[in-house]
Amino acid sequence: MSIEATDRTDATVRVIAGDVGRALAAARTRSGRTRAQLARELGVSDVTLLELEHGRGNPTIGRLVRYAAGYGVELHITTRTARPKRTP
Q1: CATH code for the domain in which residue 14 is found
Q2: In a domain, 32, yes or no
Q3: 48 φ/ψ angles, rounded to the nearest 5 degrees
Q4: Which pLDDT value is given to residue 9?
Q5: Which residues contact 23 (CB under 8 A, 6 or more apart)?
Q6: Which one of 17, 52, 59, 80 is most buried, by most CB atoms within 10 A?
Q7: Rounded mean pLDDT of the chain?
Q8: CB-hemisphere CA count at 13 Å for 22?
Q9: What pLDDT shows up at residue 52?
Q10: In contact, 73 and 26? CB cutoff 8 Å
Q11: What span, in angstroms and rounded, lies between the C-alpha atoms of 80 and 34?
């Protein structure tokens, strides 16, 4: 993988992590629970959830599914075919 492709992948991961984190934080807020309350329920530290909600966590898919359930939401992943790189 080229450095350019790696940079694009890293940027995409940051965007997705941010989107997921904001969605989870919104779900927690709607539920009326604090981060500390939810962390106790999930058996993790509130810092773990803070990182996740701010798009800085890097959980496995299994943990992410478990966390999403704790937040009261389902995790759905949609894929699409990548657009081919345009040549100048």
Answers
A1: 1.10.260.40
A2: yes
A3: -60, -45
A4: 82
A5: 73
A6: 52
A7: 89
A8: 5
A9: 96
A10: no
A11: 35
